[in-house]
Amino acid sequence: MAVMTQPEVVFPASDAWRRYVDSLTPEQRAAATAIASVTRVIAGAGTGKTRVLAARVAALVGSGAVPAAEIVVVTFTRKAAGELRRRLDALFPAETLRGLTVTTFHALGLQLLRTEGGRLGLSTRATVLDAVDARRMMKHVLEAGHLPATGRAVDDLSARIEAERSTLTTELYASATAGETSVRGLSVWRRLAGFGAAASDPYHRYHAALERDKVLDFGLLEHAGLALLATEPELCRSLRQQWRHWIVDEFQDVNTTQFRLLQLLVGRSGTLTVVGDDAQAIYGWRGARPDLLRQLEREYPDVETITLTTNFRSAPKIIEAANAVSRRTTALPRTLESVREELFPVLVLDTPSPAVEAQEIARRLAVWREQGVIASWRDVLILYRRHELAAAVEYALRTRGIPCRVLGGLTHFERPEVRALLGVLRLAINPRDGAALVPAMAVFATPPSTGTINTVISAANAAGVGVLEAARETVSAQLTSTPQRVRLTRAVEVLEAAMPRVQRHPATGLRWLLSESGLRNRCVDAVPDADPSLHPEMDARELAALVWRRQDRVEALDTVVAWADEIGGGPLKVLDACVERSMDDDTLPDDGRLDVVRCMSVHAAKGLEAPVVAVVGCNEQHFPARRRDLEALRADLTDPEELRLFYVAVTRAQVRLILTAARARSKPGTRSAPVSTPPSRFLSYLPDWAYMSVRV
User: Fold this and answer.
1) Of 280, 279, 235, 282, nearest to 261 (Cα)?
2) How far apart are CA 52 and CA 27, in angstroms?
3) Among candidates 526, 515, 512, which has minimal Cα distance to 554?
4) Within 10 Å of residue 186's Cβ, how many Cβ atoms?
5) Degrees to nearest 5, angle at CA 396 with 390 and 398
6) Which residues, listed in sequence order, are joined to residue 599 by a DSSP beta bridge?
7) What confidence tens digit (pLDDT) does each residue in 469-478 have?
8) Residue 280 phi/psi, 5° resolution?
9) Residue 3 DSSP SS3
10) Helix (H, G, I), strand (E, B) or coil at 202
């Protein structure tokens, strides 16, 4: 089954951009050629958003009035940025696009840090913590303050940090727009870094730890950029003159700090085009503010709004289902219209159990492949709200001989072996980065205990020296436990020998470390024999899943080393690239060329599409998922973001869509005995003429 979207047309290079723009639909062309200073494009699912983004840049550059170097396109993922560049490269010679900036908000903040961070007293070589390391530091802060350090406590501290920073963002922006002095702005920046809180406050202690280790988290990248522009008006004016035209993709995912940063950079003389869809706003838990898309006219009363409603992706019945859902989720109403001809109804499967649910999906896929309905296994996506549902699906597919790949669970950058290598890179850049020592020690089969590592970090902080130096000079002599002293001494010797190698050539140094520590061999040896008779304590499904997961561990290590080779440069460049990838890489790289069924969470599927999509687990408490902050509310209250997530799942399908609901499931997050579970209320929103229900 071929992937069918709005076709890309190849034109002669001389007038490619003009004919590309002319090939758009009227509504797309209006968005690409709008002349308002601020333009809002409401781009429904499958309406050719990327095509419009490329055409918008093409119209500006091709007219000859706007040099490419004056244009900045902000996307939320590297994949989206790469696709946009690919389309533009087909329209213009490289020289014409020279200087065009296609970036993400985090990459933009990182660029400002690397070039201008010294103006704020920040090291331009400061390393950046990803989400996992930031949470680990929050946990340590709570433990050091003798406070509960549960996952919920870390969530609460993270939410407070987000709220405090949002407040300070407003103050910084107000200070900048009122023309107050840089001294005032710097004072706010110091408060942003935690100096306004009591010394015993976890909020202060967290930011003090960031300052001590000379590291920042993702959020501080953007706040640092905002503080820099607010406190350095000359720099802000210079950037406005350099970057006059801004185009922002997925605007429904923008948070307050990103929006204020954008406003300072656009100023009064620049132009701003935002493209988004509030019906696909699914990142509220990351601070996204979809209301900014809906309320843009409050900041810009003259904003021009253009709505794209022609859907080129999905069959009519799928679009009818999607429209029924979106009417309940969006404050910017629109009705999508499909241009496709297939009339297959949405298939709703009612099964007795998750095992039968998975088997029925696998059976239908096998039949469709045999009939030629499915041309390639990569034409199939299987989605779920909770990753715990993946095991049954994976087992059912593999037992039928259907190749598949489960993407998700632990993300690529959450894997302990990957974090170990990134920790080594961080130590090579910043020897005082105590938080990097914990993951770096995981390269060894028998690392020092957590208590020993924490003692090393405390000694390094007290003496103001690097953690490896502290371990060698101070702690080893103090350890009374011979095994701990031996482990620490060995680890320090290997890591110190690795540091100059990693600094000279990261990929070579990491390969040496993997060999010297034996980490890669341990990952290979950890893959168990798949013979069930050798593992009587495990059922076949659990054993198969374990084999497949542990094979991925080896691939994960090799991927980091391959990236280091591909990226080139020193460890800071490699680490920056890996940190940026961690923002939108939910899994190991998957370029879509493998002939496998892809199984993933709905969040991970954002931006993807496939001819055949199955959404598993459409049951109450599973999809919609039961959230902690909703437990005290009425049982019939639907979280709007969950409904938007369902809309995203439905609109991934091009030709055939399967929605499944087992009549009995275990409670979410447990292995309890299955209990009767009603189908998701979302299924009741589908119009009768759009779906067909089958009881198995």
Assistant:
1) 235
2) 10
3) 526
4) 17
5) 95
6) 382, 406
7) 988 877 667 7
8) -115, 25
9) coil
10) helix
Q: Which two tokens stand for residue 471?
A: 């371990």
- Strand-pairing partners, residue 304, are 39
pLDDT one-digit tens code per residue, 238-273: 999 999 999 999 999 999 999 999 999 999 889 999
Residue with tokens 């990134």, as numbered in its chain: 422
DSSP state of 407: E
Beta strands of 549-636 (E only): which ranges? 597-601, 610-616
Q: What angle do CA 103, 105, 108 make, to 5 degrees?
A: 65
Residue 501's CB: how many other CB atoms inside 10 A? 17
Contact (Cβ atoms closer than 8 angstroms) between residue 1 and residue 375: yes
Question: Which among 66, 80, 63, 48 is positioned nearest to 15, based on CA atoms?
Answer: 63
Instruction: Please state, in angstroms and rounded to a whole number, the distance separating the CA atoms of residues 450 and 463.
Output: 20
Torsion (CA) 511, 517, 523, 529 in degrees, nearest 10? 120
Instruction: Give me the count of residues in the chain.
Output: 696
Residue partners of 339: CB distance under 8 A and separation at least 6 = 310, 311, 312
Round to whole Å and give the CA distance between 645 and 6.
Answer: 24
- Tell me the C-alpha distance between 155 and 633, whole Å: 20
**Residue (of 288, 280, 222, 284) closest to 253 by Cα position:** 288
Alpha carbon distance 570, 429 (integer Å): 9
pLDDT at 560 (0 to 100): 85
Structure tokens that stand for 343 in this block: 């009339």
Residue 371: in which H helix or E strand, if any?
A: helix 354-371
DSSP H or E stretch at residue 675: strand 675-676
Q: Which of 652, 644, 650 is nearest to 691 (CA)?
A: 650
- In whole angstroms, give the CA distance from residue 225 to residue 259: 12
| Both tokens assigned to 603 | 């969040």
Nearest of 1, 73, 415 to residue 271 by alpha carbon: 73
Contact by Cβ (8 Å): 106, 118 = no
Task: Please state, in angstroms and as integers, the Cα–Cα distance from residue 438 to each residue in 206, 219, 302, 443, 588, following that order.
Answer: 17, 22, 53, 10, 23
At residue 481, the 3 state secondary structure works out as: coil
229 closest CA partner among 185, 170, 273, 196: 185
Helix (H, G, I), strand (E, B) or coil at 208: helix
Q: For residue 489, with 0-12 CB atoms within 10 Å meaning exposed, 13-18 middle and 19 or more buried, which class applies?
A: middle
End-to-end CA distance of the chain: 26
Is-contact 141 205, C-beta < 8 A? yes
In whole angstroms, how large is the CA radius of gyration of the chain?
Answer: 26
Cβ proximity of 290 and 281 under 8 Å: yes
**Residue 360 tokens, joined:** 């029925």
Q: Report the C-alpha gap between 668 and 675 in whole angstroms.
A: 11
Tokens representing residue 16 in the block: 């490619």
Residue type, 449: S
Report the predicted TM-score, pTM, of the whole model to 2 decimal places.
Answer: 0.85
Q: Which residue has the tokens 């499931």?
A: 665
Question: pLDDT under 50 in the chain at which residues?
Answer: 2-4, 9-13, 530-531, 534-535, 537, 585-591, 628-637
Provide the residue type at 436 as one letter: A
**What's the pLDDT score for residue 473?**
79
Task: Determine the angle formed by the axes of helices 416-429 and 540-567, rounding to 10 degrees.
Answer: 20
Q: Which residue type sits at 613?
A: V
Say how many C-beta atoms besides its own lie within 10 A of residue 561's C-beta: 19
Residue 599 in contact with residue 641, Cβ under 8 Å? no
d(CA 642, CA 230): 36
Please, what sign has the CA dihedral across residues 168, 171, 176, 181? negative
* β-strand pairing of 101-104 with 71-75: parallel
Q: Nearest Cα to 649, choosing from 410, 321, 191, 379?
A: 321
